[in-house]
Design brief:
single chain; alpha/beta; Rossmann fold; 20 helices; Helicase, Ruva Protein, domain 3
């Protein structure tokens, strides 16, 4: 049973229509004018609206316009005794689902309502699918616990809605493509294609055809037209990975595409317009390449409209535990696998020259080869265990390589802590206590407390939330 909102200023006809709709098995809410009907719509959304066209005050067309503006999935059926072509055309232009003239036939009204209900069902189902797709698209693997990655995440949120070209730099494996996908997922182009092409992985002879496409007969073996990556990414986003490896002759053609938004298809007769947002990424220093004449200066400035540097993993060690948990859940989605504190400490100490990619590969290996559902430092690959042991042997701040205490004068932290207990001293408790005491010293002022602790304010807020300090 559907809920039908009926609007007609003729009391007798309104009563007859209400009876007819109820006989069709639907619930009816009848109104004499558009004002009261709109007031009800604000409180409860009807499944279908059936309204007269000619009414005093808010007429059927005005009611239709307002409903379409706020409830685009609610179909509106127009009834009128003035069945002119002009009225019908105007009603359909405004988005009416159906147009019936008086006197109406009951069967015709029933069919119109059923069709309107089916249309509403399809619209709501389509919207639900789009919302689910958008949610899935936005599940980007961007872990931002460290201050450095929080800055990257905030920058993504600010620039994603624009179509500005972005140059993403960072070491290999640091997550440049993840940042590019996040930019796409949070843009207005999120439902359109995201196409990534590695400029270093395609032979030079084929790269032009891959990027810009070719026409049939353009060269031996071109038996049919083939769209390039720009055409494949139409209305979406194109990531040019390893842009520093782009040959000099193609740098000129890429610059023209960025300036004209047209691609010259290999063997084609006329340029093809493209609507694509271009992102570029590289682990090389493009400014050095420009100085050495290996990269065009004008193309560099065209690509470097907004730069984003993705920091290496060794500069954002706070992200490592969260990234590790993320990868464990990815590689063992149906099992609960824990990690010991010693393992997480070892992961934070390692330098990770391969960055996030190396961390992910290590996690996958350990999950597959695990001997139990608890991962420990003993499960680390041999090369990582050796590297971590080497770091431990070299000592940490305040402790010499042979394990003896440093003879240097104690710093501020040592003066605060005083004599260390013999049993145990959890670092988490020490950090929490210092933050509480620093806040008390500055009467709860978080900005002055952050300055006192020499950390950014948002890091202090994150630590307060982490330790439950209110």
């Amino acid at each position: 049973m559907a809920r039908i909102l009926l609007v007609d200023d003729d009391a007798s006809l309104r009563e007859v229509l209400s009876f007819a709709i109820e006989e069709l098995g639907h619930e009816v809410s009848a109104h004499a004018g558009g004002e009261s009907a709109l007031a009800e719509v604000e409180v409860q959304t009807p499944d279908v609206i059936v309204t007269d066209l000619k009414m005093p005050g808010i007429d059927g067309l005005e009611l239709l316009r307002r409903v379409r503006a706020t409830l685009p999935a609610t179909p509106v059926i127009i009834l009128t005794a003035f069945g002119t072509i002009e009225d019908a055309v105007e009603a359909m232009k405004q988005g009416a689902h159906h147009y019936l003239t008086k006197p109406y036939r009951r069967e015709e009204l029933g069919v119109a309502i059923e069709q309107a209900l089916e249309r509403r069902r399809l619209l709501l189902e389509n919207q639900s699918l789009r919302d689910r797709l958008r949610a899935q698209q936005r599940r980007i693997e961007l872990v931002a616990i460290s201050p450095a990655m929080q800055e990257v995440a905030q920058l993504i949120q600010r620039i994603a809605p624009s179509d500005a070209t972005v140059l993403i730099t960072g070491e290999s494996g640091s997550g440049k493509e993840v940042v590019a996908r996040a930019l796409h997922a949070h843009s207005e182009r999120w439902s359109q294609p995201f196409v990534a092409v590695n400029c270093a992985a395609i032979p030079r002879d084929l790269l032009e055809s891959e990027l810009f496409g070719h026409a049939r007969g353009a060269f031996t073996g071109a038996i049919k037209d083939k769209p390039g990556k720009f055409q494949q990414a139409q209305r979406g986003t194109l990531l040019l990975d390893e842009i520093a490896e782009l040959p000099a002759e193609l740098q000129t053609k890429l610059l023209r595409v960025l300036e004209t938004r047209e691609v010259d298809v290999v063997g084609g007769r006329v340029p093809v317009p493209v609507d694509v947002r271009v992102l570029a990424s590289t682990n090389a220093d493009l400014e050095d390449a420009v100085r050495e004449g290996r990269f065009r200066n004008d193309l560099f400035y065209r690509l470097n409209v907004i730069p984003i540097r993705v920091p290496p993993l060794r500069e954002r060690r706070d992200d490592i535990p969260a990234l590790w948990e993320h990868f464990v859940a990815r590689y063992a989605p149906e099992r609960r696998i824990d990690s010991t504190p010693e393992l997480l400490r070892a992961l934070r100490e390692y330098a990770w020259p391969g960055n996030v990619r190396e961390l992910a590969n290590t996690c996958q290996r350990m999950v597959i080869l695990r001997r139990s559902d608890t991962l420990s430092a003993d499960d680390l690959p041999e090369n990582l265990r050796s590297a971590v042991h080497t770091l431990a042997a070299e000592g940490v701040a305040g402790v010499s390589a042979d394990g003896s205490a440093s003879t240097e004068s104690p710093g501020p932290a040592a003066r605060i802590l005083g004599e260390l207990p013999d049993d145990e001293l959890p670092l988490r408790d020490v950090e929490r206590e210092i933050i509480i005491r620093a806040l008390a010293k500055h009467n709860g002022n978080r900005s002055r407390t952050a300055e006192y602790l020499r950390i950014p304010r948002h890091v202090l807020l994150y630590r307060m939330a982490k330790f439950g300090i209110h």
